[in-house]
Design brief:
This protein is of the alpha/beta class. It has two domains: about 25-405, no CATH class; about 440-530, STAS domain (Transcription Regulator spoIIAA, 2-Layer Sandwich). It has helices at about 15-20, 25-50, 55-70, 85-95, 100-115, 130-150, 170-180, 185-200, 210-225, 250, 265-295, 300-320, 330-335, 345-355, 360-365, 370-380, 385-395, 395-410, 415-435, 465-470, 490-505, 525-530, and strands at about 10, 15, 80, 325, 440-445, 450-455, 460, 480-485, 490, 510-515. It has a four-stranded mixed sheet with strand order 5-6-8-10, covered by helices on one side. It has a two-stranded antiparallel ribbon with strand order 1-2. Strand 5 (about 440-445) and strand 6 form a beta hairpin. Helix 6 runs antiparallel to helix 19 (about 415-435). The longest helix has 28 residues, at about 265-295. The chain starts with 8 loop residues before the first strand and ends with a helix. One of its GO terms (cellular component) is membrane. This is Sulfate permease, SulP family. Its main location: membrane. It is found in: Membrane.
């Protein structure tokens, strides 16, 4: 495939032009960061899902290369999602085999593609900004809390867990307390050195071209080898553990195929629909959050993203992988590392493939504590103090949904927490909309009062309660003019209230005049709103 410039095109990028651009200098280092972050997360989520470790890596590879190519987002990164681990684990047990689960994943992928084609992604436009900001800050706090045990060498919980209640029967806070009682000082030293490198290496101009995360990994491997025969040596479980493939036949044997004979099983379809809906919601939330922290402020096409994610899940199901979504942890690491285009995502998928095929033994020397340091820095950037100050200055109607979302996500999980935040956010939106449906003015003619109620340009059903209360509380014996000259649209429910009030007002000695209030209003089109403001 070629693009308009005559060069080969991948996902809308002209490769010839790309490799000559300055974006390459940013995308390659950021792809290394995302690769290092994604590697333990892919393995940890596969382990927690009751799936083969290879399935997690395969999903990360497909998410990087396939979804990265098809997606319209420049910075979002797809891969296995922690939010789906419980669904996957339950499905494998309920359906009786991993192959039956893969069939449900294939169907889920098709459903997601259909969601995209019918424009279901537009629901992302209705996520309140304060809730998305709260979700980002909550993910940052979760990264700090969840990575602390790995940073000090206590690895009871799997990498990538975002839920408050953990699979090891602890929770986020008790997990930290347990880690403090079982500190490995070798891991602590590696973490502290890694954090120092992340903070100060980029400030040294002569070596800044070498990515700090790469130096973190090299120093972590070096220190772990230095500690090997001492009292602070790392344990085997404190390293990355990637499957080692010794031959082509062994590699091909890792792939699994769906059991298409189970397609008549009702539970297969229930699982497929559950995965499709949950994966789509997580994707849209992550996409919205990723766009919010994009320094260039690009807007990703949500419907195209659902089609891309659906294609990824379809291929993942056919080859033996796990469900994937756009993942905010990897995406935010990508943004913070300075990525500029989707090539960072695609290259990270290629690096995962290279790691699996060519250098698994080298990868297995990487301590989890140095990778935890990278995620700790990412978490700090997402939950920075300045963000809380910024939201406070926006007012309580923004700050309260923001804080509620943070607390709810940290104490439950991503979808439940965001759902709670959405309810609070929508409450404040309704409250704001109910405040300004009209302008209220009182004129006096001797002892006689004339009250003029001038309706707003848009009067929706959300304003119904406010107008109802105002009309019923008008004093007896007054003249009332309800002025609709400024209104392009008045909801039918509001019109009914106005006409009913006019009909019954004489019982209170109130004389009502309607000024340019029509019997019916059509909903204004987008073209009318843009070109006919009056």
């Amino acid at each position: 495939m070629q693009n308009e410039h005559g060069g080969p095109a991948i996902g809308g990028l002209n490769l010839r032009k790309y490799f000559l651009s300055k974006n390459l200098k940013k995308d390659i280092p950021s792809s290394i960061v995302v690769f290092l972050v994604a590697l333990p997360l892919c393995l940890g989520i596969a382990l927690a899902s009751g799936a083969p470790l290879f399935a997690g890596l395969l999903t990360g590879i497909i998410g990087g290369i396939v979804v990265g190519t098809l997606s319209g987002s420049q910075l979002s990164v797809a891969g296995p999602a922690a939010g789906l681990t419980v669904i996957v684990l339950t499905a494998i047990t309920t359906l009786g085999s991993y192959e039956a689960f893969l069939l449900s994943l294939v169907i889920a992928g098709v459903l997601q593609m259909i969601f995209g084609l019918i424009k279901a992604g537009t629901i992302a436009n209705y996520f309140p900004s304060s809730v998305i900001e709260g979700m980002l800050a909550a993910i940052g706090i979760i990264l700090i809390l969840k990575q602390f045990p790995h940073a000090v060498g206590y690895d009871a919980d799997y990498e990538g867990d975002e839920r408050f209640s953990q699979a090891d029967e602890s929770n986020t806070f008790s997990g930290i307390l347990g880690a403090l009682a079982k500190i490995n000082y070798g891991a602590v030293i590696i973490t502290m050195v890694s954090i120092g490198l992340m903070l100060y290496w980029p400030k040294i101009k002569k070596v800044a071209a070498i990515p700090a995360p790469l130096m973190v990994v090299l120093s972590g491997i070096g220190l772990s080898l230095l500690f090997a025969n001492s009292g602070i040596a790392l344990l085997e479980k404190q390293y990355v553990h990637i499957p080692v493939v010794n031959s082509t036949a062994e590699f091909m044997g890792l792939f699994k195929s769906p059991n298409f004979s189970a397609i008549g099983n009702k539970q297969i379809w229930i699982t497929a629909f559950t995965i499709a809906v949950v994966a789509s919601l997580e994707t849209l939330l992550s996409l919205e959050a990723c766009d919010k922290i994009d320094p260039i402020k690009r807007i990703s096409p949500t419907n195209r993203e659902l089609v891309a994610q659906g294609a990824g899940n379809l291929i993942s199901g056919l080859l033996g992988g796990l469900p994937m979504t756009a993942v905010i942890v990897r995406s935010s690491a990508n943004v913070n590392a300075g990525a500029r285009t989707k090539m960072s995502t695609i290259i990270h998928g290629c690096l995962l493939l290279v790691a699996l095929l060519l250098i698994p033994t080298v990868i297995n020397y990487i301590p989890l504590s140095c990778l935890a340091a990278i995620l700790l820095i990412t978490g700090y950037k997402l939950a920075r103090i300045s963000l809380f100050k910024h939201m406070w200055h926006k007012g309580l109607d923004q700050f309260i949904p923001f804080v509620v979302t943070i607390v709810a996500v940290v104490l439950t999980d991503l979808l439940i927490g965001v759902g709670i935040g959405m309810l609070v956010g929508v409450f404040y939106i309704l409250r704001t909309n109910m405040r300004n449906p009209y302008f209220y003015h009182i004129d006096k003619n001797g002892d006689k009062k004339t009250i003029r109620i001038k309706l707003a340009e848009e009067v929706s059903f959300l304003n119904k309660a406010a107008i109802q209360i105002t009309l019923t509380s008008l004093p007896k014996g007054t003249d009332v003019i309800i002025d609709g000259s400024n209104s392009r649209y008045i909801d039918q429910d509001v019109l009914e209230i106005i006409h009913n009030f006019k009909h019954n007002a004489y019982t209170k000695g109130i004389i009502v005049q309607l000024h340019e209030v029509r019997e019916k209003y059509d909903v204004p089109s987008l073209k009318q709103l843009m070109y006919n403001p009056n």
